[in-house]
């Protein structure tokens, strides 16, 4: 079976172990060394909204920054802080039995990034520098319908997923000519790196993946039927015997998207569905570079932008006009304007959009933060009282 592909560039990346919250607490230098941890777990979590307030407050108290998504299907996040603080946040999350066994990938923070991060204190009017992994004083805990958006509520990784493949066993699987290897990430990610021989669906969002599968594999629709099983209704596709689906191996950055995609393919009637445990990052941590089938750099969703083998800092920067990775060569082109446009978005932006971006960039150049030095800082009640007293005094004088 021939599956169409997209041409991409090249790149690399790396994380660290999928471990328990207790593991983080047992490491050395817990009070000063920064770390970035990405984590997720699919779970039946209808009361997810109740966790938002205490989780956000704990992160703020411990100065753990980043972003966390809570949804009825579980939790997904990426946070930055000291080893001790991050360990406490993860332990707090896993206090809920439904969230025990978080899948985690730990990435180191370079000494330069750590210096930038620790260089901003509570008395500073500015956010962490633009090269730091996250703003030290900012954490987002959002409520959403899905922890990773596929747009298909009936797809449930809680009920079933494909077979996990250890990084050390991945090369043998994807080298088999009978295996179709699919990169389920977006085109701006695959452009800078992917596994050798992998199919690139060229999607701009994970929600596009189901329609790409339908188009590529010409899935039968007439034979689809609802089956009742164990009190739940699931959609199952019956394939004609002569047109059995291929063996599929999928991967993504940290494992969450390919895990959900595997559940979708099983629902569609695919029988042999595999996905890389821990994603690209775990693979690049465990598999030595001479043995690696990864080509290029790996895009990551924080200000490092990309990482190489061994989780070393990558060479790509971020276009703040479109949030896509740009190379040194991209920044030498006429379309590149810092904070405004790059070769990947120049033609799609109107002059009005470019002017707004230039205004934002001027704010950042002046203050180190969009919106000025007081952005996001609400005056306290004491500040309000002082201001009123000051105004009264000025009036009397």
From TrEMBL:
Database matches in CDD domains: RHOD_YceA
Biased composition (Polar residues): 388-397
Origin superkingdom: Eukaryota
InterPro entries in alphabetical order: Rhodanese-like_dom, Rhodanese-like_dom_sf, TrhO, TRHO_N
Record's compositionally biased regions (Basic and acidic residues): 374-387
Pfam family, one: Rhodanese
Domain Rhodanese: 175-292
Region named Disordered: 108-129, 353-397
Name of this protein: Rhodanese domain-containing protein
Native species: Linum trigynum
């Amino acid at each position: 079976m021939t599956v169409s592909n997209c041409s991409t560039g090249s790149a690399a990346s790396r994380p660290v172990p999928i471990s328990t919250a207790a593991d983080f607490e047992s490491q050395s230098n817990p009070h000063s060394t920064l770390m970035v941890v990405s984590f997720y777990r699919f779970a039946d979590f209808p009361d997810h909204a109740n966790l938002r307030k205490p989780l956000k407050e704990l992160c703020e108290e411990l100065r753990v920054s980043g972003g966390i998504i809570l949804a009825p299907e579980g939790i997904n996040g990426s946070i930055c802080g000291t080893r001790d603080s991050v360990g406490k946040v993860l332990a707090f999350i896993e206090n809920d039995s439904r969230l025990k066994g978080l899948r985690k990938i730990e990435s180191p923070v370079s000494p330069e990034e750590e210096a930038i991060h620790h260089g901003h204190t509570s008395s500073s009017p500015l956010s962490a520098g633009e090269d730091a992994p996250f703003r030290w004083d900012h954490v987002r805990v959002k409520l959403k319908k899905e922890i990773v958006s596929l747009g298909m509520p009936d797809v449930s990784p809680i009920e079933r997923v494909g077979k996990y493949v250890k990084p050390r066993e991945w090369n043998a699987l994807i080298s088999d000519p009978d295996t179709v290897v699919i990169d389920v990430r977006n085109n701006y990610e695959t452009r800078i790196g992917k596994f050798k021989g992998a199919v690139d669906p060229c999607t701009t969002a994970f929600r596009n993946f189901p329609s790409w599968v339908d188009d590529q594999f010409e899935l039968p629709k007439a034979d689809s039927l609802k089956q009742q099983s164990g009190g739940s209704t699931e959609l199952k596709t019956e394939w004609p015997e002569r047109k059995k689906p291929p063996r599929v191996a999928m991967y993504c950055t940290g494992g969450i998207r390919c895990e959900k995609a595997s559940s979708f393919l099983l629902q569609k009637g695919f029988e042999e569905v595999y996905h890389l445990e821990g994603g690209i990052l775990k693979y690049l941590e465990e598999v030595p570079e001479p043995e690696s089938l990864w080509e290029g750099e790996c895009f990551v969703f924080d200000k490092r932008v990309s990482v190489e083998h061994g989780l070393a800092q990558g060479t790509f920067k971020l276009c703040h006009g479109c949030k896509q990775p740009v190379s040194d060569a991209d920044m030498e082109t006429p379309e590149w304007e810092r904070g405004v446009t790059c070769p990947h978005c120049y033609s799609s932006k109107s002059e009005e959009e470019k002017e707004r971006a230039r205004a934002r960039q001027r704010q950042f150049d002046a203050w180190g933060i969009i919106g000025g030095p007081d952005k996001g800082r609400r005056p306290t009640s004491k500040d309000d009282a002082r201001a009123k007293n000051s105004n009264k005094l000025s009036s009397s004088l």
